[in-house]
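Here is a tokenized protein:
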Amino acid sequence: MHFIETVFIFTIIVYFGNYMDNKSNLSKALGHDDSSGFDFAQEMLHGDETFAINFDRIQKHPERGYIIFEYLRCHESQTVTPYTSHPNRYFYKNKHKFVSLFTISKDLNAELFLVNYAKSGTKHEDLIKVMKVLNIDEFNAESPVTTKDWLTNRKEFSDWFRKLNRECASS
């Protein structure tokens, strides 16, 4: 990631944080996936390679600071489950994304969580793996992504995630 991209993202996040500081603690519930921004960027690039990444969620916690979540869906057709999959298994397919996420998390002094999950209604729907990223070393061919893992289920993850979300209302 280039310095200008990092500054731009940081500026947006600071603006958003300041904006939220000036609002009441009320927010709206998640409605639907806003893929229109992705679609718009894709249209404007006309098939050019992108040097940006999309990430799923960033929030500011009053004590922990910024927290970034990236959701990694395990599909039914794959031989791995949310419990057995790890970015080290496919790091070089998504190297740019993982390195960029980690760089952004360091620039913002943020926690970065990768969350493996399966779609609701599928065989492994109740398997959730939360991986707190401790380090990424792209030159470590054997194990480039170091994580602290928490194997959980949908209910436990939802309870933790909702609690964390509520705590962010005061930041």
